[in-house]
Design goal:
By secondary structure, the chain is α/β, with parallel strands linked by helices. It has 13 helices and 10 strands.
Length: 316
């Protein structure tokens, strides 16, 4: 049994991984696989380090929370490209998209670890948290339980008036927009915000060097399953509905195909050398990485041949 962990289950961020399990792509590779929720993000990678799970899907930079200077872990593939969190504020503010001055004096819900990307983004945009009274807060009831999805909790807190905004996944944003309680302020992946912010981090499939050494064929099969799931969702985003029905509350399940349709162009497993340079620079800027490291120390380069469509056929 292949045990996969994710830090947020009711989310679009890791749908290709969920689809690889639920739509049978792991089974086609001869693997039985399960997905479990382990939050917050640091707990996901701590479980990987402890050997409690096999691969994990999470923000690439968060690997460093459990594997300092990338010692002991490798990225197998990208789940999708670019920074995958978005910034939503309450609708009554009438904030224009991209206007970060609208954040002054507001309470913004953030999860531990994803908050580092927002802090860096605001710093580069000239927003001083103390001077501009921008309060980044942990959302009540979203941390400390292994069974809580942050985005769902943040969207509910916004609707109930406990927050002025949140930094979370695209599905949580879509919930707030469809319910009429939120408006999209920043989608960094699409070009909003400071230049370079979209490449702070990205969702990745990661594992330990020990797992790679002991089970290289299983690691390769996991990458093939992921790439096949990415291709299937690109071809037909509606296939995400089956994932939603199995994994999400009914309202979120009804939205997932539309959100995946927006995400699908970013479903690319490639991790380029430039991507790793920018990832490591962000980690250094945030004090998470002590010095630059080589691409080969970050990425399982033996998986590169499997990242491109048409390169995923299992050897008999």
């Amino acid at each position: 049994m292949l045990r996969i962990a994710v830090p947020d289950l009711v989310s679009n961020s890791f749908v290709p991984v969920l689809a690889a399990v639920d739509l049978g792509f792991f089974h086609e590779e001869g693997l039985d696989a399960t997905v479990e929720l382990l939050s917050p993000l640091s707990a996901t990678f701590a479980a990987l380090r402890q050997g409690d799970v096999d691969p994990v899907a999470g923000a690439a930079h968060a690997t460093l929370s459990a594997f300092p200077n990338w010692h002991g872990a490798k990225l197998l593939a990208a789940v999708s490209q670019h920074l995958f969190w978005v910034l939503v504020v309450r609708k009554g503010l009438d904030a224009a998209r991209g206007d970060l001055d609208a954040l002054k004096g507001l309470r913004i819900g953030v999860a531990p670890n994803p908050d580092s990307a927002l802090r860096r983004l605001l710093l580069e945009a000239g927003i001083d948290l103390a001077r501009d009274r921008v309060h980044l807060e942990t959302v009540a009831d979203s941390v400390g339980s292994a069974n809580v999805s942050f985005g769902v909790t943040a969207a509910r807190a916004l609707a109930e008036g406990h927050l002025d905004g949140f930094w979370a996944n695209g599905l949580a944003a879509e919930v707030a927009l469809r319910q009429g309680v939120g408006t999209l302020l920043l989608d960094v992946r699409s070009g909003d915000g400071p230049p370079g912010a979209r490449d702070y981090t990205f969702p990745a499939l990661a594992t330990t060097e020990q797992f790679l050494a002991e089970r290289p064929d299983t690691a390769a099969a996991a990458v093939r399953a992921l790439v096949n799931a990415q291709q299937a969702l690109q071809a037909d985003p509606g296939r995400a509905i089956e994932v939603g029905k199995r994994r999400f509350p009914p309202f979120e399940a009804g939205l997932i195909a539309d959100v995946v349709r927006v995400d699908a162009p970013y479903y690319d497993a490639v991790i380029s050398e430039d991507t790793v340079v920018r990832l490591n620079q962000f980690a250094q800027d945030m004090g998470r990485l002590g010095h630059p490291v080589k691409y080969e120390q970050v990425v399982a380069t033996e998986m590169r041949a499997l990242w491109r469509p048409g390169s995923t056929r299992r050897a008999d």
